[in-house]
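TICKET: design request
STATUS: open
ATTACHED STRUCTURE:
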């Protein structure tokens, strides 16, 4: 009986913690950071197509989008880090929730903020750049949905694993290098997968461009793969690679142990 009464109480307490003034500051920070990230990433893709209509066969266009992704993610993560954690990505939020770093109600509010921001950024681009179509993420003809999901999952695993490492206080204060590392792994992943799956790693970004572009084909690829990859990364980092029980886990030894 007591356990049955505790569950609703805990859920109510967690929900109340998710609707405080500080929580709403976090949601606003996520909205703003995600908006500017999606605006830069989708906008860079539109700019590449404007300068070179045959963008699919031009390697320089891939480099442009990868650089924009890396720079935008580094900047937006840094700007929101001390407020919301700088997730800027529903997959990162999911990975943090699975690892127990944020509550489920808070994660859901993060998702709403991120998805609304992505849709809004894509709509602004569509309205502002009348002559350009907002291109949704697509997979290459030689790729299957399953293969694209695996690729997106692996890339998101690397991204979320880097986010965990950058935010690990056992490594010392984050400083500037954390967001830069996060941006680097994102940019590298775009270079590796852009021609095949688009290199999204971000369900909100894929959803926002799909809403504005009017096509939800293969949209599941950009949700299933990243969410699974994010969950595995969070669980692996916290429970296997750097478990919290190890005081000096970075060097792989236990402090105070000697012969």
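STATUS: resolved
RESOLUTION: sequence designed for all positions
ATTACHED SEQUENCE:
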């Amino acid at each position: 009986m007591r356990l049955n009464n505790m569950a609703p109480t805990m859920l109510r307490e967690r929900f109340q913690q998710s609707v405080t003034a500080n929580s709403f500051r976090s949601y606003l920070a996520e909205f703003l950071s995600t908006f500017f990230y999606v605006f830069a990433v989708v906008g860079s893709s539109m700019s590449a197509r404007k300068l070179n209509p045959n963008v699919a066969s031009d390697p320089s266009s891939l480099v442009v989008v990868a650089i924009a992704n890396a720079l935008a993610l580094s900047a937006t993560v840094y700007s929101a880090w001390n407020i919301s954690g700088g997730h800027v990505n529903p997959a990162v939020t999911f990975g943090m929730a699975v690892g127990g770093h944020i509550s489920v109600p808070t994660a859901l509010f993060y998702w709403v903020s991120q998805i609304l921001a992505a849709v809004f950024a894509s709509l602004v681009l569509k309205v502002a750049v009348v002559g350009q179509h907002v291109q949704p993420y697509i997979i290459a003809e030689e790729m299957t949905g399953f293969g694209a999901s695996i690729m997106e999952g692996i890339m998101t695993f690397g991204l979320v694993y880097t986010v965990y490492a950058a935010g690990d206080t056992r490594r010392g204060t984050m400083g500037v290098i954390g967001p830069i590392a996060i941006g680097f792994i994102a940019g590298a992943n775009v270079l590796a997968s852009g021609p095949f799956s688009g290199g999204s790693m971000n369900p909100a970004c894929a959803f926002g461009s799909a809403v504005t572009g009017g096509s939800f084909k293969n949209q599941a690829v950009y949700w299933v793969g990243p969410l699974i990859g994010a969950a595995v990364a969070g669980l692996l980092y916290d429970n296997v690679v750097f478990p919290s029980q190890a005081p000096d886990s970075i060097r792989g030894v236990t402090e105070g142990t000697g012969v």
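CLOSING REMARK: The chain is about 70% helix and 0% strand. Residues 246-259 have pLDDT under 50 and may be disordered.
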